[in-house]
Amino acid sequence: PPPPVNTPLRITVMLAANMDGSQKLKPLMIGKFANPRCFKNVKSFPLMYRSNKKAWMTGVLFTEWLSCIDVDMKKANRKMLMFVDNCTAHNNIPHLENIKIHFLPPNTTSTLQPLDQGIIKNFKTMYRKEIVREVLACIGEVPCKISILTAMEMVHKAWENVSAQTIANCFRTCGFIKDGQTIGEGIPVQCEEVESTWNRLEVPVSFEEFVHFDDNVATAGTFTDEEIIQSTLANQHNSDNDDEEEEAEAEAPVISLKEATFFMSGLRKFFEQSEMDEKRCDTIFNAISKLDNAMDQIVTNNFSQKKITDFFKM
Question: Which residues does the UniProt record annotate as the domain DDE-1 (predicted)?
Answer without folding.
Answer: 10-171
